[in-house]
């Protein structure tokens, strides 16, 4: 099976998004930070990307009486209203807002590729190819190695948005506000950090909203103590997500938390058939369908480049498979495969030489706990 690497045409990740330069400023700041801080910042930026890619957000904003500061309305990306849950221990259902799945997949893929491009210094070029070829990305290493990759990424936490909208636009608690897009552009906004704190983002209509104010806030040394607290909350959510610890309050704010406890339905009138977030929103590459496809695609790519030792395969994500890694990923970490046509007779046995074997995947390139086989990226 022949393969010509030069025929793969790609583009610079996020090249079509005007806010990419704001992300690049953050990535420069992140270069020497710990891996979990990078993963936390991916979730912050991804939340901003969610709201940027969702059309007509004014139709989904609801009045919220659980907000204790200057904001009065909420928009979230899971079905649970975080301010009500954090501040009042009330399970308020609010339908999650999300971009269309096609736009969301492209966005999360290109964002993690931008993170990888800027945070792994040995990579001299990263191209997003997804949607037109059998690979999602091409990574070129300074030592001449080429990595063909499948990309699967999703945030652990999505952070909701708060707004201060005119009282005349408000109806009942957790009922949709009646507000136009032009009115919304004149409103103050903030990102809610699940701990009662907020990142103020200014007017919705300001240039590069919400990316510029978000990045500037993160990088401002005056806010470091607040950000450190938010990072600790993110770590609590990661641990609760990984172990399915429902006793940890952060568990239900993480993606793929399933249904709320029975009290939500009996006391707070949570809709019986609705979850907070389902398995399709699993963090990183942790959705089982994504793991299966990722490994299959790596094997498929491997068949094209079987005799090209300088070309490697990878699965790229923001996070490893915390819940399903042991069952679905670990068995393939040490797997080697070869072709029947490469079998040779040696001392009465049919054998495959080492140079005729390939791994199921060479790398798992992630922000936390990557598998790099001793290579430096």
Largest sheet: 5 strands, antiparallel
Order of helices and strands: HHEEHHEEEEHEEHHHHEHEEEEE
What's the N-to-C terminus distance?
Answer: 29 Å
Provide the gyration radius in Å: 23 Å
Structural class: alpha+beta
Count of DSSP H/I helices: 10
Q: Helical percent range?
A: 25-40%
Oligomerization status of the protein chains:
single chain
Question: On the 0-100 scale, what is the average pLDDT?
Answer: 95
Low-confidence stretches: none
Polypeptide structure, described:
It contains ten helices and 14 strands. It has 377 residues and is of the alpha+beta class. Helix 1 runs parallel beside helix 6 and helix 2 packs antiparallel against helix 4. The longest helix is centred in the middle third of the chain and has 20 residues, at 224-243. The protein is elongated, with a radius of gyration of 23 Å.
């Amino acid at each position: 099976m022949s393969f010509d690497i030069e025929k793969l045409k790609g583009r610079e990740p996020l090249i079509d998004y005007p806010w990419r330069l704001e992300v690049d400023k953050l990535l420069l700041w992140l270069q020497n930070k710990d891996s979990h801080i990078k993963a936390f910042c991916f979730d912050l930026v991804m939340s901003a990307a969610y709201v940027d890619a969702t059309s007509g957000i004014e139709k989904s904003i609801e009045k919220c009486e659980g907000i204790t500061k200057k904001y009065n309305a909420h928009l979230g990306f899971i079905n649970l209203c975080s301010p009500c849950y954090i501040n009042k221990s009330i399970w308020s259902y609010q339908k999650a807002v999300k971009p269309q799945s096609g736009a969301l997949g492209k966005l999360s893929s290109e964002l993690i590729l931008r993170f990888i491009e800027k945070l792994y210094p040995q990579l001299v070029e990263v191209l997003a190819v997804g949607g037109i070829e059998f690979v999602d990305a091409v990574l070129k290493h300074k030592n001449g190695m080429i990595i063909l990759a499948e990309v699967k990424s999703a945030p652990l936490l999505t952070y909701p948005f708060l707004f201060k909208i005119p009282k005349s636009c408000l109806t009942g608690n957790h009922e949709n506000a009646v507000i136009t897009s032009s009115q919304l552009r004149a409103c103050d906004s903030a990102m809610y950090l699940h701990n009662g704190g907020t990142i103020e983002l200014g007017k919705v209509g300001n240039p590069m909203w919400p990316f510029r104010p978000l990045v500037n806030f993160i990088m401002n040394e005056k806010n470091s103590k607040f950000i450190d607290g938010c990072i600790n909350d993110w770590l609590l959510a990661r641990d609760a997500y990984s172990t399915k610890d429902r006793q940890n309050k952060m568990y239900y704010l993480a993606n793929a938390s399933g249904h709320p406890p029975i009290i939500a339905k009996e006391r707070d009138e949570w809709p019986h058939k609705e979850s907070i977030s389902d398995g399709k929103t699993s963090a990183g590459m942790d959705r089982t369908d994504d793991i299966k496809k990722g490994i299959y695609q790596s094997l498929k790519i491997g068949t094209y480049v079987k005799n090209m030792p300088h070309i490697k395969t990878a699965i790229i994500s923001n996070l490893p498979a915390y819940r399903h890694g042991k069952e679905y990923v670990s068995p393939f970490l040490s797997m080697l495969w070869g072709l029947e046509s490469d079998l040779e007779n040696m001392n009465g046995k049919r054998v495959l030489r080492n140079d005729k074997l390939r791994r199921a995947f060479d790398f798992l390139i992630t922000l936390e706990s990557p598998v790099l086989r001793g290579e430096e990226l």
